[in-house]
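Quick illustration, no need to memorize.
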Amino acid sequence: MLQSTVAMLALGRGRARAQGAGPAYSYPMGLPGQTPGDGMYVRIAYAAENARYYPGWWHTGENWHRTNDETAGLAVFAVAAGTVVYADFDYPGRVVIVAQDDGLYAMYGHLDYTLAVEVGEPVVRGQQLGAVLARSDDLARSHLHFELRDFFTRPEVNGDALQYGVSCGYDCPPGPGYWPMSAPEHPSDLGWRNPTHVIAHRAWPNGVPEGAEVVVAIDAPAGAPRWVDLPATGAEPGDDLPLTPGARFPLLAIVAGAEDSRETSAEATRLWYRIGVPDSEAAWVQAASPVAIDAGQDGRPSSLRFDFLPVVTPSGD
């Protein structure tokens, strides 16, 4: 069972600052004054069929959108500390790649052409990298394409031995953003990772501290099933927990799927929180739920909705 803690997020533009005592990871987008991830959803999840844009291809990252408004112009933040190793290309929009201190590479695509960082610059978790590009093409709504992977360039993905006719140029660090469903490899076999799982696993590896909380997302439903034990154990849900956006609950534990999961569709993303419930026994709730805003050709959901989010507040530095 994986546990995690919640602490403070350092937001804002400019050069790297002291990291402080906050978590090692947080979500890449958020609304001003709200915890990261609130008001956002993932339209095409990791290893979901990218049917809206590239039918027959698995998505190698997550497409982050604002839920009920235009995403263009929203700030994009580093999910973890590292050093900027790439800031170029026309994806469309700029691509920033951060070589993280934990050995993973974070890629942020479809950013506005005016960036807040440059190559060689160290960044801290929560530092602004840029903003989402206002798209003028007919292919997609404005969004952030976000990847976590264990390579900068890999010969068969974005190096000098490209497979499947997918190319952004010789040794092009951004890579394609998708992988053919006809290929024998799952994206995880090639080094891509499920971003939601990585964030849950690596943000707070030393256990949940007393006082940690989750907040009900502004787009959460009126109620959520609660379990005394995780469904994977065969447990059945109890009655629904009433939800009010902005309500907070003590965070006791986090369980997430494997970082290198070999499953597909949004159903492959699993994120559960154990929370304290007033006047009742602690309960497990599903923090990220698959939804069919977009779906693959087989009808399985491609999108994710976040109902509960760790409370991550500004550091004040």
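Residues 8-314 form a domain with the Glucose Permease (Domain IIA) fold (CATH 2.70.70.10).
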